[in-house]
Each structure stands twice: as C-alpha cells, then as structure tokens.
C-alpha cells in the first residue's frame, strides 16, 4: 500500500536528490583542472589585468586562463597549485554522491591554508629569476610575513625565520588536509606512509569495520541488481533509468551481527576512492549477476562518509583470480585506507606535479628568446656583383652579430624581498632620521633593485615636499650612504627616497638584448637603455623620441652609454636598414667603428669636416622630403611601404604633373612622370662631444642641429648628441627646445642638472651608468645603464668589418662653402673662372657687396667675402667706408682693355 502512494521509486528519488550534488562536484573538478592548466602554462608576458600588452597570450586557456593564472600567482605565488588541491578533492567527493558535512568549517580551513602556505614560501629569499614584484608567496605571503616581522621585531631574524618555517609547514599542511575532509582523529595516522597504525587506532578501526563491511555488502548487491549502478548510467543512461523506473529494487536484507570468533574472510575489495591508481583499475563489467563485496572507507576517515560511492565497479572472476595469485589473499581483512594511499604514492605524484607547475611557470616567465642571425641578401639586379679594380669590392651578404661576442651576464646574488628583515631595519632607521629633522609620515613601500632601493614615504598632511627634497644630503650623511636622491613620485601622494645598495649588481648589455623586452620590441630603432629601479629592462624607440641629448661628467658612464646604444642598433638592424654618421672630435670613443658596413663616411674627427657632414645631412633631409612629396607620403615608413609594394608588383611609380598651358586653348598641359625610387634607410648621426664643435663653429653647428631636430624625424634622420659640459653656451635654448628626450648621467652641480633635465637630482647619481632619463612628456625615470667593455665593442666591430666593406659617400665631407686658409693675389686661392665672373658682375652691376655676390654666384658667404677681399687687394674695389659701402676704383672699359 505504501509503494502505491509513492510517486517515484525510492532508488530513483535518491538518485535525483544526489544529482545536483554530482553536477556540482563535476563542475568543481573541471574548475580545478582548468586552474591547474592555466597555472602550468602561465607566462608573465601574457596579457592580464596587471600587465597590459598587445601580444597574444601563450596560456593554453587563452586570455581568461592568463588572467586567472596571473591573479593566482600574484595573490598566492608558488602556493597556488597546492591551494587548488582541496577544491579538486571536494569535487571528487561530491561527484561520488557524498553530501558534504560542515562545508563552512572546510572553507575556514582553506582560508587559513591560503595564508599559512604562502607565508611559508614568503620566508625564502626571492631568486633572481622571479619576475613578479611580490615574494614567492604572493601578496598573501608578503602580508603574513610582514605581520610576523612587525610582531617579532625584537627577535633576531636568523633565529626567527627557521622557527617560523617549522611552525608554518605543519600548520599549513594540516589546514590543507583538513580542507580536503580529513578527520582530526585519523589525521596523525594518515601521515604514516604505509606503516602500521598504533594499537588503539587499529583496534578501533577493527571495531568499526564490521558494520561498514555489512553496509558495503548490501550496497554491492543493490548495485549488481541494477546492472552496474551509476557507472552504467553513464554508459547507457536511457536503459539504466528505464530499468530503475520499471522495477524497484527491494531493500537488502540486514547483515548478520559479527561473531566474536574470527569471521569468514571476505574477498578483496575494489576501492571506490577517486584517488586510486587509474592505470591499475580493472575494466568495469556492466552486465552479469555476480556480486563482489566492496569495502567502504573506514569510519572517521572523511567527515562526510557515505556508503554509496559513485563508481560501482565489479570484477570478473578472472580479475579476482589474478588478484589472489598476485599475493592479495582474502585473509587481508583490514581495508586499505584511501588517505594512506593518497599520502603515499598519489600524494607524491600530486606534489611532484605541483612542483612541475611551479617550475614550468617560472621558467616560462624567465626564459628569453635567443636571437638567430638574420641573413640579408642584396638583390642581384640592384648593382653588378663584379666591379672594376678601382671600385670598392662590397660584400652583399651581411649577418647580424651573434650574442656570443658579448660577455654573458654575471650570476648575481639573490635579491632580498620587500619584507627582508635587513630592509625593514633600514626603513626603520630611515624613518628615525626623518623624524630627527621633523618630517612625519609612514613608509608605504620598499622596492629593492640591482643598484638602489626605493623607499616610498607618505608624508603627513601639511608637509612640504620641497622640504623633504632639500634633506637629500642630510639623509645620505645620516644613513651612511654615498648619496641619496629624493623626488616626488608622479601621480601619487608619496615621496621617493633612493638609497644605494651595499653591493651593486652589474647590468649586462647581453642580458637586456636577450630579454623579451628587446626581442619582442616593435620599435623601429630600439635602444637598450638599461634597467629600472626594480630591475626590469628598459627599451626605448629612438624613432619616437625622435632625438636624444646626453650629458654627463667624465667617468659617469656617458661614453659607455653611447656604445650600448650603438650596439643595440647594430644587433637589430643590418646596413640595408640603418646607417650611421659618427662625429668624434676627441678621436677616442667612436674610432673603433671605423670601417663597419653601416657607416656612410669615415668617423669624423675634424670639427670643420663635422660641419660639412651636418650640412650634408640637412641637404639629404631636403632631398628625402622632395622624394616623399612626389609619392604623396608623410614619413619614411609610408614611403618604404609604397616603394616595396611597387617593387613587389614589378611596376614603376607614376604621377601626373602640370608642365604649362596650351597657348591656343589655355588648358593645362599634363605629363606623366615615371620614376623608380629605392627604399630609404634610417640615418643616425652620433656626436660624442658637442662642446668641441660649438667652440669651432658654434653658429653653423647650431643652425644645422636646429634644422635637423625640427624637420628630420619624418625623413628617418635622428640625432644622438652627447656633451660633458652641459652649460648654457653648449646646450643652448634652441637645442633644448628641439630635444625633448634627454639623459643625464652624473653631473657636478645642481645648475648642470637643471640645464639638462630641468630639475636637480643628477648631481646625486652614483656614476658608472647611473642615469636619469627624461622622456618626451617630461617624466623622469631613473635607470641603470648596461656595461660593455672595450673588448666586446672591438669584437662586434671586427665581426661587422668581416661581413663587408662600407659604401662611403664622397660628398659628405666636402664643404662647397669652405674658404681657403691663405688666398693668394694671383688667383691661386680661388678658381680663375669664378674670380673673373665675380669681377665682371661687380663692374657691370656696380654692387661690390658680399651678399649680392653670394646671391648671383650661388656660393657661400665665406667664399663671396674672400672674393671681395681679393678684389680689394688687386685695387678693383676700395676699402669699406664708415657706412660699409665700397667704391669701385676702375671702370669696366679699363678692365676690358
């Protein structure tokens, strides 16, 4: 009667009640697996909320996987894989039909583990390969470590941290296992990996074993009668549920009470635990009526133990015989604990997998791409492969220099983390020094770097920043530092105090070129500027600057910085894309590059020839603008793209021009102009010492530099100028106005610092490559330039010279306006034809002025002035009067006679 009143069969109703939990369990398992996959393929360079980039993600799960992995690594660091483990265990338990008990307690244990496990990793020093700003334990680990350091400030760090680690490791592991569902009664025995349990625990397990086995036997019989249980539901869901509706299984008979004498040995059970070895699990048999007794999990092992696991697995007689033959006799009445198996082989496998996740993620973020030599071959139809003996024999194949020519970066010591006890002690001492001078506030951040450490101070309300900035020398003296730089942090209510480290790391050029910042850079003219305060590589684009002004005293690293910039371009661009004009009045720094294929002229050491080279550059700029105007483009990039497209099509470029008007119809006459342009290369003009050139020809140099800095950007011509005397007579207002990007190495005074970057601070630098870089927007960044030795520069230059000879332009160093040193009366100083033409013009037009003669003959002012002076010496014109006018002394007819 009772069965007629029930709407659904009892078994079906039970399965429907467990179905939402099973769906939730499988969802949690899927989420945990997705997080693990995201962590395995995590890369620091992937786009994420903390790192904006336009590159495609390398993460296996795309943008979402990169964001999840970055959030986990930022929050928990290396503890992230371990914290996902309880989620998967919880999902497995629910998917097996085990309705969880006390989920809030599990969540509380997981939250405690999320703080203790990262704190354990945070106690280790941060290795040099760690790419995140936080420690090894992420934000949570740094937070816990800071709390402990603050609470135990009086204890020595050498004694505190080992004790702290001994407490964190078992506490974090305990919380993790409790979050997985382990009962506290059997947790100590679970750590005995395959060993014997204590006597009391073993007796208690045997006492609780009898009813569990009886219940398991009843469950196995019901599973057998239903044709394989829930596993059959997955294999044949329609048949399984139809059978459950048609015929309801009667409840199993209760098992007899256990006798005091030893009971009959039961067959060896198949563990339904989700942690068992899947490779050794027998194939499930979904048919048949033979029932095998299944041992359930021991009572008290998991907090939410149920007797109906999800996977109902039955063995065939063959598999049972195999198990007996292999030594698994039926006399083994004690069931194998799933947690014991988990903490044995499966736990070891899980931990090894977690370590692989960590190693894979770290290696993927720290790995750099080795640049392969790119071969650039000049087309055979551009120029003949063979030339005559009097022409330069040029090698048309050139390869970029290999990185092996540069010294490998030295193995640096591990950099301390932000919560290192020594840094915390130094920050406390700095706050005491500031308090002595009446400055109040709090320390908001510590950022250690390879050369200096930045301490961010949030001053109290009403504190003037200029007052704190003025205390730089006093802070350096009180902190026993070589120097200290104090500046306002842009965009934040903080003041940065930069103090040098006790041990300075060397920044290697090869390390920057090998970095992803340089290899993945889309810059047209990339410059390896150095490393930031935090140790990240800084790569800038000279094409966007578009010119660079450098200042620094002797020994500040200015010349080494110029060499690193030149090498950055040589390692990226072949001669077919970038050429150099190098001006070195000191005849020391840039002479090593003389003869490389990238040069358009030999290294210029004569200041007068330097003026000619700059004038040629101005002329080349105007010529390029004329070519670009014919194609209707605005910059060198568009020009080269249009020329490359025309060469790809194999057709010359055409344009229609107007040549005049028809006299009969007054209609414009148009002609088609056909021309075949060639791509333009970038031209970088490097001037090592500007002060020497300004002393020789200040006006000419300033005029040429002004023209180039104002107009040469679109033509692909860029300037790099350096000086060791940044005074106002060298770095004039005109030059400063056209050089928005500047670099200041160490200078001697605050006045020089204000001249080059507009504010003080450069006088507080450490030298040897320490610099302040001011970008075009006026933002100042402190960087540490890489070091490159003279031997490395010579090796790279020798490699490039072996690739081919330079194709010099003879007209670069020829100045048509140059005057002779000692003009002679007989016409030896000037050309006879030019002098005769000048005399005829003066006698005919009756205008003996230098400017008029300059305009008529199309010569320079110096040449025209020398011609007038020669006429005065020969008695053709007189000396200038008080008004500057000259009198013609002979008539034209006398000249003709």
Q: Could you walk me through the main structural features you see in this protein, from its secondary elements to its overall organization?
A:
43% of the residues lie in helices and 11% in strands. The protein is α/β, with parallel strands linked by helices and 897 residues long. The protein folds into five domains: 2-190, no CATH class; 199-336, no CATH class; 421-500, Threonyl-tRNA Synthetase, Chain A, domain 2, CATH 3.30.980.40; 510-519 and 530-803, Rossmann fold (3-Layer(aba) Sandwich), CATH 3.40.50; 832-896, Arc Repressor Mutant, subunit A, CATH 1.10.10.10. Strands 10-13-14-9-15-16-17 form a seven-stranded mixed sheet, sandwiched between helices. Strands 3-4-6-5 form a four-stranded antiparallel sheet. The protein has a two-stranded antiparallel sheet with strand order 1-2. It is elongated. The N and C termini lie far apart (151 Å). Mean pLDDT is 72; it is low at 186-217, 223-398 and 819-830.
Descriptive terms for the model:
897 residues; alpha/beta; seven-stranded mixed sheet; four-stranded antiparallel sheet
Q: Secondary structure elements and their pairing?
A:
Layout: H1 2-5, H2 10-40, H3 62-76, H4 80-95, H5 103-122, H6 138-151, H7 157-180, H8 187-190, H9 199-225, H10 229-235, H11 237-246, H12 317-325, H13 338-366, E1 375-377, E2 397-399, H14 421-436, E3 441-448, E4 452-459, H15 465-469, H16 472-478, E5 485-488, E6 495-500, H17 509-514, H18 516-519, E7 526-531, E8 537-541, E9 548-551, H19 558-570, E10 578-583, H20 607-631, H21 636-649, E11 653-661, E12 668-675, E13 682-687, H22 690-711, E14 717-723, H23 733-737, E15 741-744, H24 750-757, E16 770-774, E17 780-784, H25 790-803, H26 832-845, H27 850-857, H28 861-873, H29 892-896
Parallel strand pairs: 9-14, 9-15, 10-13, 13-14
Antiparallel strand pairs: 1-2, 3-4, 4-6, 5-6, 7-8, 11-12, 15-16, 16-17
């Amino acid at each position: 009667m009772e069965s007629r009143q029930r709407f659904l069969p009892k078994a079906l109703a039970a399965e429907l009640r467990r179905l939402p939990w099973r769906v939730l369990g499988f969802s949690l398992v899927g989420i945990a697996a997705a997080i693990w996959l995201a962590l395995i393929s995590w890369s620091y360079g992937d786009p994420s909320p903390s790192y904006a980039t336009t590159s495609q993600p390398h993460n296996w799960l795309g943008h979402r996987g990169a964001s999840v992995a970055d959030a986990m690594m930022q929050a928990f660091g290396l503890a992230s894989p371990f914290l996902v483990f309880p989620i998967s265990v919880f999902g497995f338990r629910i998917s097996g039909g085990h309705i969880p008990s006390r989920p809030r307690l599990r969540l509380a244990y997981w939250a405690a583990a999320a703080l203790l496990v990262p704190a354990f990793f945070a106690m280790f020093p941060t290795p040099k390969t760690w790419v995140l700003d936080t420690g090894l334990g992420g934000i949570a680990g740094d937070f816990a470590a800071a709390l402990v350091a603050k609470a135990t400030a009086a204890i020595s760090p050498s004694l505190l941290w080992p004790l702290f680690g001994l407490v964190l490791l078992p506490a974090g592991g305990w919380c993790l296992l409790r979050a997985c569902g382990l009962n506290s009664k059997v947790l100590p025995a679970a750590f005995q990996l395959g060993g014997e349990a204590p006597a009391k625990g073993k007796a208690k397990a045997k006492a609780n074993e009898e009813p569990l086995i009886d219940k398991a036997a009843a469950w196995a019989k019901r599973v057998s009668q239903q044709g394989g249980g829930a596993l059959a539901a997955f294999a044949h869901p329609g048949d399984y549920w139809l059978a459950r509706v048609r015929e309801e299984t009667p409840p199993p008979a209760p098992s007899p009470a256990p006798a005091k004498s030893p009971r009959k040995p039961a067959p060896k059970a198949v563990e339904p635990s989700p942690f068992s070895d899947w490779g050794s699990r027998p194939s499930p048999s979904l048919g048949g009526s033979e029932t095998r007794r299944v041992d359930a999990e021991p009572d008290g092992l998991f907090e939410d133990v149920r007797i109906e696991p999800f996977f109902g697995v039955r063995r065939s007689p063959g598999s049972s015989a195999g198990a007996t033959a292999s030594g698994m006799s039926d006399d083994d009445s004690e069931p194998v604990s799933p947690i014991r198996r988990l903490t044995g082989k499966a736990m070891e496998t899980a931990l090894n997998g977690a370590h692989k996740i960590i190693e894979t993620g770290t290696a993927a973020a720290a790995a750099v791409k080795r640049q392969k030599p790119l071969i650039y071959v000049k087309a055979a139809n551009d120029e003949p492969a063979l030339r005559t003996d009097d022409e330069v024999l040029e090698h048309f194949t050139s390869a970029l220099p290999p990185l092996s020519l540069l010294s490998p970066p030295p193995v640096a010591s591990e950099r301390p983390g932000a919560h290192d006890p020594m840094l915390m002690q130094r920050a406390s001492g700095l706050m005491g020094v500031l308090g002595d001078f009446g400055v109040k506030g709090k320390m908001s951040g510590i950022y250690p770097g390879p050369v200096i450490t930045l301490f961010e101070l949030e001053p109290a309300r009403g504190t003037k920043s200029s007052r704190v900035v003025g205390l730089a020398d006093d802070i350096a003296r009180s902190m026993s530092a070589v120097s200290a730089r104090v500046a306002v942090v842009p965009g934040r209510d903080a003041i940065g105090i930069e103090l040098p480290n006790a041990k300075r790391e060397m920044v290697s050029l090869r390390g920057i070129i090998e970095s992803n910042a340089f290899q993945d850079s889309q810059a047209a003219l990339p410059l390896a500027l150095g490393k930031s305060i935090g140790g990240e590589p800084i790569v800038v684009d000279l094409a966007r600057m578009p010119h660079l002004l450098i200042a620094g005293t002797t020994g500040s690293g200015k010349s080494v910085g110029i060499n690193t910039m030149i090498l950055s371009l040589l390692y990226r661009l072949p001669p077919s894309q970038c050429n150099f004009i190098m001006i070195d009045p000191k005849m020391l720094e840039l002479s090593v590059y003389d003869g490389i294929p990238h040069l358009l002229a030999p290294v210029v050491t004569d200041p007068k020839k330097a003026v000619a080279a700059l004038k040629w550059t101005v002329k080349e700029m105007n010529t390029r603008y004329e070519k670009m105007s014919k194609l209707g483009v605005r910059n060198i990039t568009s020009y080269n793209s249009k020329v490359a497209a025309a060469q790809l099509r194999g057709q010359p470029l055409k344009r229609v021009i107007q040549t005049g008007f028809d006299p009969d119809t007054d209609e414009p006459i148009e002609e088609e102009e056909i021309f075949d342009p060639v791509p333009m290369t970038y031209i970088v003009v490097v001037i090592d010492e500007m002060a020497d050139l300004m002393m020789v020809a200040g006006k000419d140099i300033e005029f040429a530099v002004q023209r180039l800095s104002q107009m040469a950007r679109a033509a692909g011509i860029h300037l790099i100028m350096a000086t060791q005397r940044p005074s106002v007579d060298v770095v004039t207002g005109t030059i400063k106005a056209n050089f928005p990007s500047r670099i200041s190495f160490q200078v001697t005074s605050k006045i020089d610092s204000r001249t080059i970057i507009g504010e003080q601070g450069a006088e507080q630098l450490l030298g040897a490559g320490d610099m302040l870089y001011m970008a075009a927007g006026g933002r100042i960044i402190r960087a540490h330039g890489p070091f490159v030795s003279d031997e490395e520069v010579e090796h790279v230059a020798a490699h490039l010279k072996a690739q081919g000879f330079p194709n010099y332009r003879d007209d670069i160093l020829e100045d048509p306006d140059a005057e002779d040193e000692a003009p002679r009366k007989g016409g030896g100083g000037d050309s006879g034809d030019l002098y005769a033409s000048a005399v005829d013009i003066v006698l005919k037009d009756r205008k003996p002025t230098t400017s008029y003669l300059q305009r008529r003959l199309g010569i320079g002012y110096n040449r025209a002035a020398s011609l007038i002076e020669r006429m005065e010496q020969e008695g053709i014109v007189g000396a200038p009067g008080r008004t500057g006018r000259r009198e013609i002394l002979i008539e034209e007819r006398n000249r003709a006679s």
